[in-house]
Design goal:
Shape: globular
Helix content: over 70%
Largest sheet: 2 strands, antiparallel
């Protein structure tokens, strides 16, 4: 039944997106000051991913994933409403907080753990959206990130969680067929927001149940976490309005420096796979945790310094 759910997630996402692309009127992503693309592109990918996720959830059942599925669906609905009607930043953030608190309460968290977890979930929910700005990037992170969680859960003999994470990765893989450069469609907030939310909540659930250490999901998704967090901190220190659209992320600068979307995607996949390997090394060899964290930090520091150097040279 688990494998059938994974297959259902892939097939449902593929079929949904194929069907939607045949429609004449679709919600479009129009280029703005944050965009790296130049032509309007349908932003319907998230609808396919969520359709695949719901198909898998129906096959898997299980009360342990139900709060996450319902919460992800609610966030997708808010994102669709934002696309249709337009919601203020405050309303969107309030929805993210309410959904996060509700899901975490249903998972049994309380007190200061609930507070810290809520902030982490809301941040991950939004940073995943921030990082969805180049063809193939967010889809690739979903395939590799949730795929890594699935393998770790399987190794930990938590088969329900493994099947659910594998289903998310399968739906993202089907989406990637349409989003790999040159993209025929984009994910949109209805995909990136729920994916960021599930990366955080499933990471927390696995840690709370002893499936993996806290650092494991952080390392797995570190290619997105580090870029978004460092960029936000830099913008805040410069006194910039951190909620406004921009092109300051390191992945955005790589494209502005001349990398194609395909080159960026392939380089990002290599980095994501390396981050996953380091996460599994930490999982299997916990006695080397400090060294692995230093190695990971050094890797990102070197990448960022190289981009900064090229950026300064370009500006001269």
């Amino acid at each position: 039944m688990s494998w059938l759910a994974v297959i259902a997630a892939f097939a449902t996402c593929w079929w949904t997106l194929t069907w939607l692309l045949r429609r004449s009127r679709l919600p479009m992503d129009h280029p703005n000051e944050r965009s790296l693309h130049a032509t309007p592109t349908p932003r319907i990918g998230g609808l396919g991913i969520m359709a695949g996720l719901l198909a898998a959830a129906m096959g898997l059942g299980g009360a342990e994933v139900l709060p996450v599925v319902l919460a992800a669906a609610a966030l997708a609905a808010v994102s669709v409403l934002d696309d249709v009607r337009g919601l203020s930043v405050s309303v969107r953030f309030l929805a993210h907080f309410v959904v996060a608190v509700g899901c975490l309460l249903a998972s049994g968290l309380s007190g200061w753990v609930l507070l810290v977890a809520t902030l982490a979930v809301v941040w991950m929910t939004n940073l995943y959206n921030f990082m969805d700005g180049s063809d193939g990037l967010a889809g690739g992170m979903a395939v590799i990130g949730f795929g890594a969680l699935a393998v770790a859960a399987w190794l930990g003999d938590t088969l329900g969680l493994a099947a659910f994470c594998a289903s998310i990765a399968a739906a993202a893989l089907a989406f990637l067929r349409f989003n790999f450069p040159p993209a025929r469609l984009f994910m949109g907030d209805s995909g990136s927001i729920p994916l960021g939310f599930m990366a955080a909540t499933l990471g927390i659930a696995g840690a709370m149940n002893g499936v993996w250490p806290w650092l494991f999901p952080l390392l797995v998704f570190s290619p997105f976490i580090v870029d978004a967090s460092v960029t936000l901190a830099r913008r805040a220190l410069r006194g910039e309005k951190i909620w406004q659209a921009h092109r300051s992320h390191y992945y955005q600068r790589a494209v502005l420096l001349g990398a194609t979307h395909r080159q960026l995607a392939l380089a990002a996949y290599a980095l994501m796979l390396l981050a996953a390997v380091l996460a599994f090394a930490l999982l299997l060899l916990p006695q080397y945790s400090a060294g692995l964290l230093i190695l990971s930090a050094s890797m990102y520091l070197l990448i960022f310094l190289a981009i900064e150097q090229r950026w300064r040279t370009r500006a001269v």
